[in-house]
Amino acid sequence: MEEFTGGETWRVFRIMSEFVEGFESLKDLGPAISIFGSARSPKDEWSYQTAMKLAEMLARRGFAVISGGGPGIMEAANRGARNGKGVSVGLNIQLPMEQKANRYQTKSLTFRHFFARKVMFVKYASGYVIMPGGFGTLDEFFESLTLIQTGKIRRFPVVLLGRKYWEGLIRWMEDTLVDERTIDPEDLNMFYLTDSAEDAVEYIVKFHRDTIRTTGERRKRSPLPQQEPGNR
Q1: CA 156 centroid distance within chain
Q2: Full DSSP string of 173-190
Q3: N or C terminus of the chain with fewer C-beta within 10 Å?
Q4: In terms of DSSP bridges, do strands 107-111 and 64-67 run parallel, antiparallel, or are they unpaired?
Q5: What crossing angle do the helices spanning 135-149 and 114-123 adopt, rounded to 10°?
Q6: Residues pairing with 88 in the sheet
Q7: Whether the Cβ atoms of residue 73 and residue 56 lie closer than 8 Å to each other
Q8: CATH class of 2-221
Q9: What is the pTM for the complete model shown?
Q10: What residues does each domain of the chain span?
């Protein structure tokens, strides 16, 4: 029992070290967009090319780009950010298969624990872009909606890219989740669907411009200083 307890105690310190390293490394990152998608997307596929184009445009508009650091869409995101002369962050994870760090990261961290890595994705994000992907991508998408819905983070833009890929899921959400009253119809307004990288970038930029304008107007009307809800 003593050996087991000691091992578990040290595990807590290892987990803490991942959080400390992440916080210290990313604290001065500035506005950033986390991009998610399949690790299996080949370079000549629409989703890879679109993610690379999107990330380059975001970088040129002053956003850092955060990815999972691996191949596929993650590589495309980091590659696009590098092409756009921006900050290209890779939050790598130790896995027995699939995950191999791509070479386009200007800032790289490696995690053993998914939950510590997931905190970094959302804590330093000014928005999410969800490209076609598998279970991990779906996990990040639904987690972002859960955190926004429950008020645990401030509202930020969540963009789904690829109508053909995502429309079936959205129809199921409308026909099942809304009909069964497990979500409200308004909850479907928490994300934005498009096929265009340009449209996605403009939506993100407009969202933040409108948020800044609304915040400024609210502060002018109020005689007391207001603290904005944040995810930091």
Answers
A1: 10
A2: IIIIIITTTSS-GGGGGG
A3: N
A4: unpaired
A5: 50
A6: 65
A7: no
A8: alpha beta
A9: 0.87
A10: 2-221
